[in-house]
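To assess whether ligand presence alters the predicted conformation, the chain was also submitted together with zinc ion. Input:
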Amino acid sequence: MGFMAKHSNESLVREIKGRLSITGLVETYVSLKRAGRGFVGLCPFHDDKNPSFHVNDDIGVFHCFGCGAGGDIIGFVMRYKNLSFKEAVSELANKADIKIENRPVPADRNSGRELSFKANALACEYYHEMLTQRAEGKGAKSYLEKRGFSDEIIREFRLGYAPQGWDKLDNFLRRRKFPLEIAEKNGLVIKRSNGEGYYDRFRNRIIFPIVDVDSKVVGFGGRVIDGEDSPKYINSPESGIYHKRSIFFGLDRSKDFIRRAEKAIIVEGYMDYLSLYAAGIRNAVATLGTSLTQEHSLLLRRYTDKVAVVFDGDESGKDASIRVLEAFLKIGISPSIVVLPQGHDPDSFITRSGADEFLSLVDNASSLMDFFIEKSLASLKEGALTRNRAIQGIIGMIGIMRDSIEKSHYIKKTAEMFGLREHELFSFMKNLTQSQIPEGSSLVEKPNSHEKMLLKIVLKFPELLQLLKDMDIVQFLADSEIKSVLREMLEREVIEVSALLVRFNNTATQEIVSEAIFSSNDVTDEPTARKMIEDCIRKIKLRKLEEKMRYLRVEIEQATNTRDDLREKQLIREYKECRELVEHEKSVRGVMHED
Ligand SMILES: [Zn+2]
């Protein structure tokens, strides 16, 4: 059944692509000129001075060499109109005169997912009833009222209460004859250690359902009512439908407000979010017990390119700000930061000073990059950071900026602050190899060029896929998007670009594929392509081996320090094997370069 749903979803997209040409659609928004076998125009997604936006009807793909935007016809509409995949498909189906009322559009992959949603929906209903209808929920209810959450908010967000006791939800699900192993998979109940039955995860807690953009419950957050029980917050564990790396609390409610306000405010938790919401500030979202990830930033970019991050006034700032900054700069967004006065969170601040005061803080927020530079300078003065490290950290950030004007602004600024000449800073930038980029800046790492090269070659010469299979290379790839695209090509033998893109509707993958296609002009004949692939594979393997050697060196040092002789010997043996392999690969490469 699940397969059928996915299948007809795919056939719908295929039908759309059969009826609408991508240039025909794009032309209604962007004026295009013929160039070679395709069309070019000014990119609608960045401030384009020379036409760098390419569209090709033969393969049904667009790509911008200026900002990296790219994808198929669905991807274009998603991005241009800030729509979800589902919304874009139904809009295009409409345009193509395809009736979809009776078709299963949801992209749910299998009935396992449906059952998981069912489990959460049932639990949500139960908790909500406990809070709003039962005597057990009175304490929780009055706590929420004290915090300023009206009945309307409680209803809108389906807040709930998990009663005291070990088997309340467990019994409720049993009465409904719902399979408890499904509830366990979704973290609602936990298996007893003696193996007999289950007990409730959430007990005597206020329950905050966590929902996806379609308002389906994917997990729960539970908060203690007052300081009686630690820990203060517990959340559902990750499951097949709950991935905290890619979900914002409140996005389903706030996405339209974010579009209208043309700005998103990011806060640290659902209590902060609800306080803002209760105060009438509705263009916010909250992360869920995790720092902001790349998935988060990409998700938010669908709705706006202006982002303000709110940090509590305490010293949580710096590390979190580095991650947020990286995740957004990488996709061309320069976030601003609101630092609340010492000891305040959004709730306490609004209670004291009001929503208008809060909004004016947001409007006058300073740039997060400036904040980061100031923090680096402060650490330098405190002696927590050397001058070189401080400069490297800042340059690492400048290096991932997409906007050249912004880049040169910050180069100038950094040069001034550190008393360097600009050209000295530039040479600093050139010399900055990946290993010097400070830890925690993992995202600064360049997208792997050899992996991109592999993808671009096999898209042009699919017959060379067999080489990848023979050499078993996919497991060595570091880029998860490229990895999943190549897997799809190898395992399912989907080699046609348009069909491939039907299977990947996230922006990042669409961009990688479109870039690969539009930059494959330099690969002209199969024999050269074959050689290039072999060379890429060697380099990728080499990189992996060298990475392992670095890791082993650290391990060996540790073993030496703890005088673990046995382990040390074993690690050294592994290290030597690795080194031999590296030397072997390098010698093969040397031969290649000579001919
Ligand atoms: Zn562009």
